[in-house]
Amino acid sequence: MNENEIGQIIVDRAVRLHKTLGPGLLESVYEVILAQQLQQAGLKVQRQAPVPIRLDGIQFEEGFRADIIVENKVIVELKSVERINKAHEKQVLTYLKLTGIKLGYLLNFGEAIMKDGIHRIINGTIG
Predict the structure, then answer these.
(1) Is residue 37, in this structure, part of any structural domain at all?
(2) How far apart are the C-alpha atoms of 56 and 113, rounded to whole Å?
(3) Which CATH number belongs to the domain containing residue 21 in this structure?
(4) Is 71 domain-assigned?
(5) What domain range is 65 assigned to?
(6) What is d(CA 113, CA 11) in angstroms, rounded to the nearest whole number?
(7) Is the pTM value of this prediction over 0.85?
């Protein structure tokens, strides 16, 4: 399964979850349920996956944690805020660069309509 196929499953499940629960719950609620739904779809999911930092040949495990990594191919960062800003998008792009993963989604469950909360972020090109 390629990144785009995985991404379609992620988006479909996120939209369905938002329709069921509505906007504005804690990010952690959406994270645990979305991760479970992706696993039920047959995908390998890591929650709160470490994103280490490498500098001068040294790896620091105390870097960041991505909310969800799916099949080691797509990073999903969840928010439940009134509005996404550039810092949120830069956060996902940084995770992509540090991991070498090409595709990320920034999903804002705080939006009234989920399609307005879906941001697709690409690191390089996707085959």
Answers:
(1) yes
(2) 44
(3) 3.40.1350
(4) yes
(5) 3-122
(6) 13
(7) yes
What is the side-by-side order of every strand in the sheet holding 103-108?
Answer: 45-55, 58-70, 74-79, 103-108, 118-122
- Residue 22 and residue 125: Cα distance in Å, rounded? 33
pLDDT tens sequence across 25-56: 999 999 999 999 999 999 999 999 988 888 88
Quote the number of domains for the chain.
1
* 67, two tokens: 């909310």
Is 127 within a domain? no
d(CA 85, CA 102): 21
Six token digits for residue 61: 């495990």
